[in-house]
Amino acid sequence: xxxxxxxxxxxxxxxxxxxxxxxxxxxxxxxxxxxxxxxxxxxxxxxxxxxxxxxxxxxxxxxxxxxxxxxxxxxxxxxxxxxxxxxxxxxxxxxxxxxxxxxxxxxxxxxxxxxxxxxxxxxxxx
Length: 126
Hints:
Elements: E1 6-16, E2 20-21, E3 24-25, H1 26-36, E4 41-46, E5 49-50, E6 58-59, E7 70-77, H2 79-92, E8 97-105
Antiparallel strand pairs: 1-7, 1-8, 2-3, 4-7, 5-6
Helix pairs in contact: 1-2
């Protein structure tokens, strides 16, 4: 498991939900490439309303505009690893927004891989 604490870089990619890469959702391709690159983590968030460079508002409130809702993919890792990954995003993101933020990782802990279930305090449940 990757250990990550202290200073890090967060890259956030804003794209449309309907954006694709070889007939797969683009956000899926980005997450899988981040995983293959060994980055600490990536998450996809679906927006309920937004607009971008086209100035067209996409929202869940109007059926006719509920297509292609905004999606944000957030990836956090060390600055070196994130910057190494950026050229892979250039290939994938034709339309959208990619931003970098410095951040501080306070806690990064994964689940323990065992056969028992755990409660929120990390103790095994029966």
